[in-house]
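A quick aside before the break. I want you to see a complete sequence-to-structure record at least once, exactly as it would be stored in a machine-readable document. Don't worry about memorizing anything.
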Amino acid sequence: MRRAGLFLFISVFLVLLVGCDGWQVTSSGGSEEAEQSVEENLSKMESTVEEAEDFESAGWSTMEYMNNLVKIGKPAVPKILEVVKDKSKNSNLRSLLIHEVLGNIKDEKCIDPLIDIAEDNEEDEGVRENAVKVLGKFKDERALPLLKDLLYSKSESLKEASLYALSGYHDNEDAALAVIDFLRNSEDEGERMLACKVLGSMAHPVAIPFLIDSLKNGKGRGEKLWAAYALGARNLRSEEGIQALRDALYDETAPQREILVALINQREHEIVREFLRYLVEELKKNPDRNKRSDIEWLLRSAGWAYFTYKIKDPEVVPILEDALELSQFGITKGWLASALTFITGKSYKAGNYSPGYFEQHKEGVLRMEKEILRKRRRERNEGR
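That is the input. The structure line, written in tokens, reads:
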């Protein structure tokens, strides 16, 4: 996870720096000055990586050289590929060059060499993993057979890297069907969750019935959660998907909070109002502490969504007003009052919590509330 975080930070940093003044090599063969700079930066990068204690420190300490190589661009690729293909070179050096330099230059001449590296069973696994991930950035049909095969690799890191790469194949039915087959054949909760996440990124409509099945019958909460996110996204919206989300709102094993927020954000007002009325009616029954906590958590999540996403639905006002009156938790009242104040323009009281307080502290308050709910659910599951 630390390596993935490092890659993300460095990638963003390099993209930003490349926009600054630097090498501007436009000729097809490059220039002597640029070629000399490539060799100098590769040499400095290699010696720095050799001296680094670990991969993370190697990444931080070579950012300047990687930035210089990305700025030079395509003329730097032949020399970089020489290093990348040389198995005698440091594997951390090769991984950084693949992921952070070639992955940002995006020269199609890299595709075949990267495929060769990714399919080489004798190659270092970390180097293969990064080659696989960068292939996903090109979205090239030549890499698709390999990526599909690696979904069933014995290596967990290569399997995950292949899913990561396939997520870049937007609107590619062949790639989507490969991930669907993987989802259908896997019994592992983590793999199924990741497959749903990838299908959401790919946004191909062929995935909709399978995401609906995961939402209804998923093997874990993570799978249901990412299926819900995918079905609730604007780029994969469908009538059957929205209906499945509506049904899942009433399923206590489903990620109700995330589904409710997604439907509010999608402006599915009728479905949301119907569910909020249901919650208000449940509150009127004076439920026990645990049931009330769950209901109020959903109500304040609704208030948070209306307020945060600046969504106005005048017809929801009387329902939120009833919820505000029935609520026994100050923080729920605060979010509901904040939402009502935004929607109507009138001032609603919320005990010790003002709408202004939530505007300043909304993310922190929500994190605190999530942790409280997790603790209560754990206690219930343990039979306390």
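Two observations worth writing down. Residues 1-23+61-141+158-166 form one domain. The two ends are 34 Å apart (CA to CA). We'll return to this after the break.
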